[in-house]
Amino acid sequence: MVTEIKKGVYWVGVVDWGLRRFHGHELSTHRGTTYNSYLIVDEKVALVDTVWGPFKDELITNISKIVDPARIDYIVTNHSETDHAGSLPAVLQRARDAQVVVSTRGAESVPGHFHEKWNFKTVKTGDRIALGETSLAFIEAPMLHWPDSMFTYVAGRNVLLPNDAFGQHYATSGRFNDEVDEHELYEEALKYYANILTPFSPLVKKKIDELKGLSLPVDVIGPSHGVIWRKDPTQIVTRYAEWAAQKPGKCAVVLYDTMWEATRRMAEAVGDGLAAAGVPFKLFHMGVADRNDVIVEVFKAGAILLGSSTVNNGILPTFMPILEEIRGLKFKNKIGAAFGSYGWSGEAVGQLEEHLKSSKIELVAEGVKAKWQPTPDDLAGCAALGRAVGVRLNAA
Ligand code: FEO
């Protein structure tokens, strides 16, 4: 349902209740998502971001409830990823004279996606476009989370439209943060940050400092996914500043994969050791766990313990996606260790340690191996490993 979020500023986006995998199949979205598009109606008419292509007709219908789409003068494309730019062709078929407003890097990426000779207008931080009573001001936000990313500020209405930043994959009937379950909202906001924005945390901190320096009045923050922050809108900015600091939690995750339960038994013994050191932990079997949910727990934890049995001289293949994800997300301030069972060669533990090192996770204890099924002494070694990591975490 089209919603007026401030005078003359309308949400004309789409709620995608059914989405369960995003970015192809890379990201789990248990609560669906929304594609938020905003229409500003003044003497001039501007549309800020569109929606994913399969929903283009709903977008056109929503815009048409407010104005004839042919009246659109500007289509601001804060970011070229197809969930936001995918309906540009459909809108431009109806608004043939509209200018497509892009950031400096968007001037490369938007044409690169569509290969159309549209009427582009490139803007940079500080540029403004007057609409009448209101105007649009632009703040480039490179790598939050693509080079082309940009925030648009609706001056005169105190509305910040930061595209992916501050968003959540969260389909809801209410459009505003004060209309939804706060626990669910923050679960999704953190999952979004942990899985998408973690590697750019230093830039998140700089951008927040830059925004504070601008002293813009902000009544509403309208991200491009999920609910709109209306009640205490800058609460999510405060949370982002906390998350960007990546302060290690006094808790641990034990991630393992297992063929015949030997490494599972070792993982549980590692957990016993962590508990003995007073460190709460969560244990995940990566053959069956949701990788993106586990990444949230990795984000929160100060210690990461990895276990795999050895197969074909290496780590179980089903364990590899989370290892690649951890390396790519460039977590900071974490410690770790490795363990695993084997039958004859036993390379997995050493390879897990190499993964920890290349992920910049400090190895703080020597890995533990057990041949075939672990003996009581092997399990005691695993518990000692867990305890050593726990003691080190507590001392940090
Ligand atoms: Fe980076 Fe929501 O797309």
Keywords:
single chain, 396 residues, alpha/beta, Metallo-beta-lactamase, Chain A, Rossmann fold, 2 domains, 26% strand
Nearest-integer average pLDDT: 97
Question: What percentage of residues falls in helices of 4 or more residues?
Answer: 25-40%
Task: List unreliable stretches of 5+ residues.
Answer: none
| Count of DSSP strands | 24
Which molecules are bound besides the chains? MU-OXO-diiron
Describe the biggest sheet? 7 strands, mixed
Description:
This protein is 34% helix and 26% strand. With 396 residues, it is of the alpha/beta class. The chain has 2 domains: 3-244, Metallo-beta-lactamase, Chain A, CATH 3.60.15; 252-395, Rossmann fold (3-Layer(aba) Sandwich). Strands 1-2-7-8-9-10-11 form a 7-stranded mixed beta sheet, with helices on one face. Strand 1 (3-6) and strand 2 form a beta hairpin. Helix 6 packs antiparallel against helix 7 and helix 9 packs across helix 10 (320-329). The radius of gyration is 24 Å and the shape is elongated. It starts with a strand and ends with a helix. The model has no long low-confidence stretch (mean pLDDT 97). The chain binds MU-OXO-diiron. The site of MU-OXO-diiron has 8 residues, from helix 2. MU-OXO-diiron (FEO) binds at residues 79, 81, 83-84, 145, 164, 224-225.
